[in-house]
Structures are given as structure tokens and as C-alpha cells.
Amino acid sequence: MRLSGRTSLYGVIGYPIEHSLSPIIHNAAIDALGINAVYVAFHIKPSMLKEAVHGMKALGIKGFNVTMPFKNEIISYLDKLDEEAALVESVNTVVETDGAFVGYTTDGIGAFETLRSIVNNFDGLHIVVIGAGGAARALVYRLSMIPCRITILNRTVEKAKTVAGKFSSLTSNAKITYGSLSDSDQRMIIPKADIIVNATPVGMTIPGYPISPSLIDRSHVVFDMIYWPTETQLLREARLRGAITINGLPMLVYQAAYSFKLWFGIFPPLDLMFKVAEEELLRHG
């Protein structure tokens, strides 16, 4: 990487951000394609988000990713939203276009591509999504285009109800229902699922299990959006019970690849992005 006065600046904002693999993934692809750009991580305190966004525009930053806890709050400081980002009320990618900051989400396609690497056909399947935040909503939006059944489980059941109602009104393909994370709802819903997706931070920043692992068996595919640790407690228990498991690393790479395409107009080398991400995780073993 050779920096100059013509080097374009990209990055990721979050709090905390030190753990992010995004600079490693994106810079590897930038170097491989010979693009005169660099991608860095910006540690932004929550109270300074507005000032940070205005500062990034003033500095001529061409694009950036957005991670926790800013995916919803940043919407207030952007000039425009892509239709999908507006629907899911979450932004993980910002593109500078003619001086304006435009918000997109690639979380949904990233999660969907991850599941599709394991499951070829979703028609008729029952997918349980745990959580109702931005990444969960983005995945539900993508799945809602398919004739499947989706159940959203959330600690705050009213939030799950709101999300289910919103996306039910937008589709005639999927049947979308909701429930709580109470023991009774889990016992009624989890055993009948084909795919279980954890879209909460439980297992990463919050220790423990998002659902009772005793309800998982070899008939399930269990996808945890968390990529560090590489095997959460949920995935470990699911694997021991015979389920097919997948962590959040593929989602991280896929969503990064689609962000990259939004910025540079070219799809990056996925194999390289997976390789450098896996090597970095092994180093932190």
C-alpha cells in the first residue's frame, strides 16, 4: 500500500471498534485490486456521532461502514437512504455521492448468502430469528421474499410484534409470526424450526445462551451472527447435539464484499477476504 495525496479514505465507525476485522479484510482487497485507497477504523464515542459524521464529510471521506451501536442512530445524520435501509431502519454502509452521504444496508444480503451456503432451498422452511435489531430486520426483509415461515423471537415481545407486522404487510410470500423468549414460547417454537439464527449479542458481549440449547437437535441448522468467539456457547452446544452450525465470519465477509462493491463498483476477491479474516482470527485464537 502506497499512500499519496490522491489516496481515498474509507473506514468503519463503532464503539468499541478495536476488535474489528474490517480494516484487514478491506485493505487486502484494495491492495489486490490496485485501488488507491485505504480503510481504517474510527473509535467514535456515542455522544460524538453527529460531530463525527459531519467531520467525515468535511474531510472528504468517500465511504464507511457502521457497526454497533450506531446502525439506527446514524440515520438522522445522513442525507439519503437506500430503499432497503429505510425499510429495515438500519445502515451499515455509507457512500459519498456528489457530496451527500447515502445510507445502505448489506447485513441482510450478507446473512442471506451465509445461510445459502448451507441451505440450497428455503421454500417451505421454518426460520426462527432471535432478536429484532437492525441485522435481524435486514435478514427478515431478505427472507420475506421467499415462500417460507419466519418467526421472530425477542426479549421485548412488542418489538418482535412490530417487526413481524411491518414485514408481513410488505410480502405475500412469507408467513411471519412472532413470540417472546419465555420458556413456554421457546418450547413451542424452537423444536419445530428448521433454521435458528441468533441476531443478538448474547454469546459475545453478553455471556450465555440466547435460547435454551436443550431444545436444539440434529434436525436444526444453527447460525450465530457472532464471529468472535468463533464458536459461541450456543454453537458449541448445537454442534454437540448434532446440529449443523455456522458462525458469523461468512456474514462479515459477504456484507463487506457488498459494501466494497457499493464503493468501488467492483466485487472484491472473496477467497482472499475469507483467507485474511480466518488468519487474523487464528492469530487471536
Explained architecture:
This protein has two domains: 8-105 and 250-283, Leucine Dehydrogenase, chain A, domain 1 (Rossmann fold), CATH 3.40.50.10860; 108-247, 3-Layer(aba) Sandwich (Rossmann fold), CATH 3.40.50. It has helices spanning 22-32, 49-58, 83-88, 107-116, 134-143, 157-168, 183-189, 233-240, 249-264, 270-283; strands spanning 8-14, 37-43, 63-66, 80-81, 93-97, 100-104, 126-130, 149-154, 175-180, 195-198, 221-224, 244-246. The protein is built from ten helices and twelve strands. 43% of the residues are buried. It has a six-stranded mixed β-sheet. The protein is globular. 36% of the residues lie in helices and 20% in strands. The longest helix has 16 residues, at 249-264. The chain starts with 7 loop residues before the first strand and ends with a helix. Strand 7 (126-130), helix 5 and strand 8 (149-154) form a beta-alpha-beta unit. It is α/β, with parallel strands linked by helices and 285 residues long.
Brief descriptors of the model:
12 strands, Rossmann fold, 2 domains, 285 residues, six-stranded mixed sheet, alpha/beta, 36% helix
